[in-house]
Design goal:
The structure holds two protein chains of two kinds. Chain A is α+β, with helices and mostly antiparallel strands. Chain A contains nine helices and 21 strands. Helix content of chain A is 26%, strand content 35%. In chain A, the strands form four sheets. Chain A has a six-stranded mixed β-sheet with strand order 7-8-9-3-10-11, with helices on both faces. In chain A, helix 2 packs across helix 3. The longest helix of chain A is centred in the middle third of the chain and has 18 residues. The two termini of chain A are 37 Å apart. By secondary structure, chain B is mostly helical. Chain B folds into two domains: 286 residues, MetI-like (MetI-like fold); 221 residues, MetI-like fold (Orthogonal Bundle), CATH 1.10.3720. In chain B, 71% of the residues lie in helices and 1% in strands. Chain B has a two-stranded antiparallel ribbon. In chain B, strand 1 and strand 2 form a beta hairpin. The longest helix of chain B is centred in the N-terminal third of the chain and has 34 residues. The chains are: A alpha+beta, B mainly alpha. At the A-B interface, helix 1, strand 6, strand 7, helix 2 and helix 4 of A face helix 20 and helix 21 of B.
């Protein structure tokens, strides 16, 4: 059983904490993405799991066996893991075939078997015709596939990926996301995937762990992370967000700075009272100029704002507005289908369902 | 994000020895190499300080008092400073101008000029000095004979056995250091900066003067310091050109302390200020080159357009070739002529032609034969051992294998600040007494060369490892290779060419070494440079020339080989 368990994991570099008291459980066959801005500790976490770094505190277990702790460090080569690196790290002095075969050669498999397995995995990543090439003769995407094949052929219990797509161009990146997800569904290898790109994390992972400043902020299914962010940081890092601040009064009612009252989503995590912030996704806001319709929705429980279109950007698929809620001190960003376009300076009503107004910790 | 490879092998942590299961099997190799390096560097340096401060009575400053109250010794120090200053100035002028011409102008034959500067660089200074005694000795020097035959006068035009002669010849073989530093900088200065000035109406020379020169200034100062340092520690040229005129420098003075009766204590006391001076200068140079303003040059550099010299192209080219003829053409020509003549001072015609110098030096004369054998033996031994140690140390520091690994860089580069003569004094003191007596064998030379060439090998090995991304090795480890396997299968093959280059650089350094050898050789362990120095006393011009040509030929073949090897590598990896 290749479950990975990180417990109170900490690592300092030159006195500064890169990872701090990180707890994370990764189930067997689960695909977890570590998501966060650069410097958040995600790559350090991955290198701790790989055994290239030793933790200062806490421990890492596979199953119930401790593989890393301040006093134990199982070397990387004995962890039954594979890793895909940001630089691909395809060995330039070996052909594609030799690159992929290396891990099997070290395991001292018989030659025919090595041959069979390598060809099989190369076919899987569509590289078989290029097997005699050197890395200098491959494109970035092809090198990426070599790295993938090399990692898969040793049949690891755990697969680690460190920003594997960040050096590819946009189209190829999108294609490879689906490819990685497809391979995961085929092999179901326990996977830890580091990225700073939320779309990448959403496309590939079963579960996303959002890290900030060396700490785990929130872990959950992509939809949970997106719809129920726990903190302002998560709300703003994963997707676009309007953050409104105010004070919770109780009973799901919140008084915004500036005086307006709104109803917020009832959430077990949310505090009942006190200063609070609310995340409101731009695409969850409905605009209308029809006062009767606005009143009707408000009567049905929607939160009603009134404001003036301050800015409009037309994207084709959507229209992106900034709505000034003056005299309240907020500017709402709204993304709506461009079926009806509003003009700059036009007075509009903005409506949001209480369930879409999610209380987050202001941090 | 922390940079990759900043971690230490966990099992080396103090007080956290894990069970044998997690023992890093390669650790003894790394610790052994590190300990060896530290001993190699600390023993000679420590012994110099000790010898200069201690005698039978205990701690004393008498030696320093003796050295610094003697007028002759003080004159040697003064001479050294004067010589080094002027060598530095001339080197900066020649080296700086050459570098600018080669990188930023449309001067023709640039590749050839670069190659010839490289040839000056490869020429051992003592060989150049020897050639110049044949060219510009006051009586028999060929240039003076030519002058007399043209003008019909009796006096000499040049006398190389003078302070200016000494300075000029030293500068001829020091300016290439400045050249390579400035050329690197000039290649990085973007033409945009120069264009900006020209758009504002500055003329070409004015642009060069107001924009290019200030940008290159830190490199010029750095180059001056390097040339200054070179001449501080040079022994061969001052010994060959200065001693006959009674001009002593610090290095030749230290050498005389070794003549009978040897005064090791004085040699040690005299070495310490030289050591201090070089340390200070290196620190100064680091500061100059590391200043922030310098970083304007460090960018990618935009397009580089070349300054057009116009009608000046030909005269400038001729001037450049004239200077190169002083460092390369004339000396090489006289060496070749001397090697092929019965009487070197007579014209080389059919009657005067002979190959007997070659057969004498290579096959008959046992001194030269033994020296050639010793030199190549030492060259191969030192290059092999040196590459091995330098590789291990560079790997340790590059991958930071255990706590404090970075300090090893300091030890590996320490010989840069130790003039050869000083190093020899230290090694002499250490290895003439138990527990390890090496003096009288070639092994003391081996240790000396190993120490002296460590920076060259280390720098080359370090830059080789730096160019190999640590992830390449980690990619091997995570799929099952332990550290030594990954080293053998991945890092070593990728580093191969770079390490062969390190081997070659050490080898060349060894075969041309004089200032250490001259103090440490014994009658049965003479090397080529020492024999050349000895034969000069006996007037064996032909044999010396043969040996010199041999040294040059081997050096050039090896350098061309390295070039080819590294070029081929760059092409193969498609970088």
């Amino acid at each position: 059983m290749a479950t990975v368990s990180l417990q109170r994991l900490s690592k300092k570099f030159a006195g500064a904490a890169a990872v701090e008291a990180l707890d994370l459980e990764i189930g067997n066959g689960e695909f977890v993405a570590l998501l966060g801005p650069s410097g958040c500790g995600k790559t350090t976490t991955l290198r701790l799991i790989a055994g290239f770094l030793q933790p200062d505190e806490g421990e890492i277990r596979i199953g119930d066996k401790v593989i890393s702790s301040p006093s134990v460090l199982l070397p990387p080569e004995r962890r039954s893991m594979s890793m895909i690196f940001q630089s691909y790290a395809v060995w330039p002095h070996m052909t594609v075939f030799q690159n992929v075969a290396y891990g099997l050669k070290i395991k001292k498999l018989p030659r025919q078997e090595i041959e069979r397995k390598v060809v099989q995995v190369l076919r899987l990543v569509h590289l078989e015709p290029l097997k005699e090439r050197y890395s200098a003769e491959l494109s970035g995407g092809q090198q990426q596939r070599v790295a993938l094949a090399r990692a898969l052929v040793v049949e690891p219990e755990i697969l680690l990926m460190d920003e594997p797509l960040s050096n590819l161009d946009a189209n190829l990146r999108e294609e490879m996301r689906f490819e990685i997800r497809r391979l995961h569904e085929e092999f179901a290898i326990t996977t830890v995937y580091v990225t700073h790109d939320q779309a990448e994390a959403m496309a590939t992972a079963d579960r996303i762990a959002v890290l900030n400043k060396g700490r785990l902020v929130q872990a959950g299914k992509p939809a949970d992370i997106f719809d129920r962010p726990l903190t302002r940081f998560v709300a703003e890092f994963v997707g676009k967000a309007n953050i409104l601040t105010g004070e919770l009064i109780g009973g799901g009612a919140l008084r915004l700075t500036g005086g307006q009252w709104i109803q917020v989503a009832g959430d077990a995590n949310a505090p009942a009272q006190g200063a609070a912030a609310v995340c409101l996704r731009p695409h969850h806001i409905r605009l209308t100029t029809d006062e009767a319709e606005a009143k009707k929705l408000a009567g049905a429980g929607y939160n009603l704002f009134s404001g003036v279109i301050q800015r409009l950007i037309y994207f084709g698929e959507t229209a992106d507005y900034a709505v000034d809620l003056a005299p309240h001190p907020f500017i709402l960003r709204v993304v709506s289908p461009p079926a009806q376009l509003y003009q700059k300076g036009q007075r509009v009503f903005a409506l949001a369902a209480p369930d879409h107004c999610v209380v987050v910790r202001d941090e | 994000m922390p940079t990759a490879g900043t971690e230490t092998i966990g099992s080396a942590r103090e007080g956290r020895w894990p069970g044998l299961k997690n023992w890093e099997p390669s650790l003894p190799v790394w610790l052994g190499a590190a300990a060896f390096l530290v001993c190699l560097m600390l023993l000679p340096l420590g012994s110099i300080f000790k010898a200069s401060l201690w005698d039978e009575k205990g701690l004393t400053l008498d030696k320093y008092a003796e050295v610094f109250s003697n007028a002759a010794f003080l004159a040697a120090i003064r001479n050294t400073v004067v010589i080094s200053f002027w060598v530095g100035m001339i080197s900066v002028v020649i080296g700086g101008l050459f570098a600018w011409l080669v990188t930023r102008t449309d001067l023709p034959w640039k590749k050839t000029i670069r190659a010839l500067v490289m040839a000056s660089f490869v020429t051992p200074p003592f060989l150049g000095a020897f050639a110049w005694t044949l060219l510009a000795g006051p009586n028999a020097g060929l240039l003076n004979k030519l002058y007399r035959s043209i003008t019909g006068r009796e006096d000499a035009l040049f006398n190389v056995f003078t302070m200016p002669g000494l300075i000029l010849v030293m500068a001829l073989y020091s300016y290439p250091y400045v050249f390579s530093m400035i050329a690197n900088v000039c290649e990085l200065i973007s033409s945009d900066l120069e264009d900006a000035a020209e758009i504002l109406g500055a003329r070409k020379l004015r642009t060069a003067w107001t924009i290019t020169l200030p940008l290159a200034l830190p490199a010029l100062v750095g180059g001056f310091i390097v040339a200054f340092l070179q001449s501080l520690s040079l022994f061969g040229t001052p010994a060959i050109l200065g001693l006959p005129a009674g001009i002593h420098t610090i290095t030749t003075q230290i050498w005389t302390f070794f003549q009978y009766p040897p005064r090791l204590d004085l040699a040690a006391a005299f070495s310490v200020p030289l050591l201090m001076a070089t340390m200070l200068l290196i620190a100064l140079q680091k500061k100059v080159l590391g200043r922030r303003g310098f970083s304007t040059v460090g960018g990618k550099g935009g397009q580089k357009r070349l300054v057009k010299l116009g009608w000046g192209r030909l005269p400038v080219l001729l001037a450049v070739l004239a200077i190169l003829s002083l460092s390369v053409f004339l000396p090489y020509w006289i060496l070749l002529k001397a090697a092929l003549s019965k009487a070197w001072a007579l014209p080389l015609d059919w009657d005067n032609f002979t190959l007997s110098n070659f057969s004498f030096a290579l096959f008959q004369f046992s001194d030269t034969q033994a020296a050639i054998l010793n030199t190549f033996k030492l060259g191969i031994l030192t290059a092999t051992a040196g590459t091995l140690v330098a590789t291990l140390i560079a790997y340790i520091t590059n991958r930071n294998l255990f706590p404090g690994a970075r300090f090893l860089t300091f030890f590996a580069l320490a010989p840069l600040v130790i003039p050869g003569v000083v190093l020899a004094v230290g090694l002499f003191i250490v290895y003439t007494q138990p527990p390890v007596v090496l003096y009288g064998t070639i092994w003391i030379l081996f240790v000396a060369y190993l120490t002296k060439e460590m920076p060259v090998g280390y720098a080359q090995a370090e830059s080789t490892f730096k160019s190999i991304h640590v992830e390449l090795e980690e990619a091997g480890r995570i799929i099952g290779a332990n550290r030594l396997m990954a080293l053998k299968d991945i890092t070593a093959p990728l580093a191969r060419s770079g390490l062969i280059a390190a081997w070659c650089f050490i080898f060349i350094g060894v075969i041309r070494e004089l200032s250490v050898s001259i103090l440490l050789f014994a009658p049965n362990s003479k090397v080529v440079s020492v024999v050349i120095f000895d034969l000069k006393e006996e007037g064996q011009i032909g044999a010396i020339s043969v040996m010199g040509i041999l040294l040059l030929a081997v050096s050039f073949i090896i350098i061309l080989g390295v070039r080819w090897l590294l070029d081929r590598d760059v092409v193969a990896t498609g970088e």
